[in-house]
Write a structure and sequence with these properties.
Blueprint (H helix, E strand, L loop, with lengths): L14 E6 L5 E5 L5 E4 L2 H15 L2 E4 L25
Parallel strand pairs: 1-4
Antiparallel strand pairs: 1-2, 2-3
Protein name: DUF2188 domain-containing protein
Organism: Sphingomonas yabuuchiae
């Protein structure tokens, strides 16, 4: 199935960043704040970023500054509320 979507020229191009956080974890994030991946190596992060860039018609860029994880690496507190079921 093929669907053509009109391209909005005013829409800003999406970027996918590859970089490390301050703790040295490799991250891939997009400029829209809707994508994040965590990886054990730069190579794995780059492969993922390139594949996602093809899907989203985005560009890949290496982050110049440390990235801030969208999802915390901190352990969940023992008294944190638990969902009764997953989404």
């Amino acid at each position: 199935m093929c669907t053509d979507f009109p391209i909005d020229p005013a829409r800003q191009a999406r970027l996918i960043y590859v970089g490390q956080d301050r703790a040295g974890h490799w991250l891939v994030q997009d400029s829209a704040g809707q994508l994040e991946g965590r990886f054990i190596s730069r190579g794995a992060a780059m492969r993922y970023a390139v594949e996602e860039a093809e899907i989203y018609h985005a560009s890949v860029a290496v982050a110049q500054d440390a990235l801030t994880p969208l999802v915390s690496f901190d352990p969940v507190a023992a008294d944190a509320p638990v969902l009764s079921r997953a989404a």
